[in-house]
Amino acid sequence: MRFALIALVAVALAAGASDLRKPVAEKRGTPYGARADVRAFAAEIARDTDLRLTDVERWLGAARFQPQIVALMQKPFVEPPKWFEYAPPFLSAERVAGGVAWWNANGDALARAEAKWGVPPEVIVAIVGVETYYGRVAGSYRVIDALATLAFDYPRRAAFFRGELKEFLLMTREQGISPFAPKGSFAGAMGVPQFMPGSFRRFAVDFDGDGHADLWSNPTDVIGSVGNFLARHDWAPGQPVLLPAAIDDGARDAILQKLDGGITERRALAAWEEDGVTVDVLPSQLPDATVALLALEDPPADGAPRAAYWIACGNFFVITRYNRSRLYAAAVWHLAEAIRKGLPR
Q1: How far apart are CA 264 and CA 255, in angstroms?
Q2: Phi, psi dihedral angles at 234 (to 5 degrees)
């Protein structure tokens, strides 16, 4: 049986190498089950894991190409929005009220997560609020379709999505669910916190102890998983995220030249102060911290650009491990603050 499998893998890999030279458009008209590159990948998964080749071939053969996903991924690059354009939907009164309600409904789990990982409840709630509006917009694509489309018909990032497709099949086996059941975003992000399959396998936790991690309909597991993700990426309990800052007039031009895409490299806080950056609030635990200067654009006044300036602390960069965007991390923090202030006293 072992030698037969090795022979099959060799044949499939050879066929797949030949098939990879075909134009993508030509292959897109062929069902995945009939494509040599897909069969080669199925053989690779079976070789590298304990998943059965017949199961992997059946699962991938039933995946469906989604042309709208490729169209979304191929949208032409546009200049990133400014903060005053990006932030309003995430900081609306409705989203803040939704966060307060979600906190009130899940307060016990949030308190347990804070005790275990040191992540404040408002940060977990805000991430869920920014990602999926507290689960209201979690994606409607079958995850296997999204990942297969990007793995086999989006060459620019095929290697990444093939890795996530393998992680997904392993994840569904581990969780005891059908590979055809989970739904998510067009990029394959899953559930209320929008974990990719690799992140699911590394960071999702069964926080209510029922035997599996459910990130679609179990807020307790969602809370535990987001808290675990942030802790595993070095969240520092009790440390700030952003601190208001100002730039001395005489130092403004030199400081602003250090901004690259709205944020600078990280340096010692003392170095920023020596260069003319004033921090309005300076917690005693930050004197030796390495931090960055962050600019968040305000609406122009009289045609002149304006911005608010912040010191981005280590926990800000932990949030960027969830999403690399400075605007995303800033939105999470501002929403977290608004939700915390909106709680009944």
Answers
A1: 9
A2: 80, 35
Instruction: Note the pTM of the prediction, 2 decimals.
Output: 0.88
Q: In this structure, which long-range contacts are made by residues 96-102, counting pairs with CB atoms below 8 Å and at least 24 apart in sequence?
A: 96/335, 96/338, 96/339, 96/342, 97/342, 98/129, 98/133, 98/134, 99/125, 99/126, 99/129, 99/134, 99/335, 99/338, 99/339, 99/342, 100/339, 100/342, 100/343, 102/128, 102/129, 102/134, 102/219
Residue with tokens 């995430």: 90
Tens digit of each residue's pLDDT (9 = 90 or more) over 308-343: 999 999 999 999 999 999 999 999 999 999 999 998
Dist CA 321 CA 336 (whole Å): 17
Encoded amino acid at 277, one letter: V
Active centre residues (catalytic): 131
- Ramachandran region of residue 208, left (φ > 0), alpha (ψ -120 to 50) or beta? alpha
What three-state secondary structure class fits 241?
coil
**Tell me, what's the pLDDT at 169?**
98
Helix (H, G, I), strand (E, B) or coil at 20: coil
159: phi > 0 → left, psi -120 to 50 → alpha, else beta; which?
alpha
